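Fill-in record for Amino acid ABC transporter substrate-binding protein.
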Amino acid sequence: MTLVKTIACSVALMALAANAQAGETLDSVKKKGFVQCGVSTGIAGFSLADSKGVWSGIDVDMCSAIAAAVFGDAKKYKVTPLTTQQRFTALQSGEVDVLTRNTTATISRDTTLGLVSTGINYYDSQGVMVKKSLGVKSAKELDGAAVCVQPGTTTELNLADWFRGQGIKFNPVVINNPEEAMRSFTSGRCDGFTSDKSQLAAMRAAQATPDEFDILPEDFSKEPLGPFVRQGDEDWFTLVRWTLNAMLEAEEYGITSANVDEMTKSDNPNVQRILGVSGELGKGLKLDNKWAYNIIKQVGNYGESFERNLGKSTALKLERGLNAQWRDGGVMYGWPVR
């Protein structure tokens, strides 16, 4: 066998071994008795621990929903807070089973990291926040400004692309931790702080005087955020993807955590399939047929999760916008559970 063929065979065997190992995620999760999820180190509305160490947020709900699907118990999960620089390594190494962290789906991440996006649970865009006292109404007025940004993110690249496209200059102040970046911004080290607009809204809401800050109108990018898993594990990938779709479909058909038991009596065949009243759809996921019922009963549908963590009753007071159901002017569109 030639050296070239030997190397090619070795690479192929390594790939097969990696895929075989990756394919055991669901079995591994069931064996240890919980789902290990990678989340952010603390972003209100997405993943944030309270004074008692209890985590909440739309990304934590996603993790909890996966646990409900697998175990029938939404509490059988643990979270690992990860910085932007730690998140991919933690998933690649198997430290976490799934990354339910505000992470942007991009082609390079799907093709170079050995990871893959399973769907979008929040459509966002990048912007920049400034102090009102700066007197700036548009990001185009920030020529020569110092801007706080986190490294190793699409945010860092988008910032450079946008300013280059506008023909204006800026001075990046690279800070790894978002809380530290916000402190640097409020202390005057930076003229602006750039991140996803949802994160900027969360940071602003956490300030003693939130009205002193403006999020400028420009959108620097599209930021489709959602869970990631390792490549080569179709069972786990499919399970995570359909967990999200079940929450979206439930909202579309008006199935909530409050009425899910009553909805099991519905004559609607779509509702019957979602709730496992008819069909054997759970078998294809290697789950109980009530997997989606358990998600909705214990965690809620997508709309419930959004309103509980990000909506008008929260400090963030975010509108649904693009994250509304497709019939309501948004782009959230659950795939058919059938």
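KEY FINDING: The chain is about 40% helix and 15% strand.
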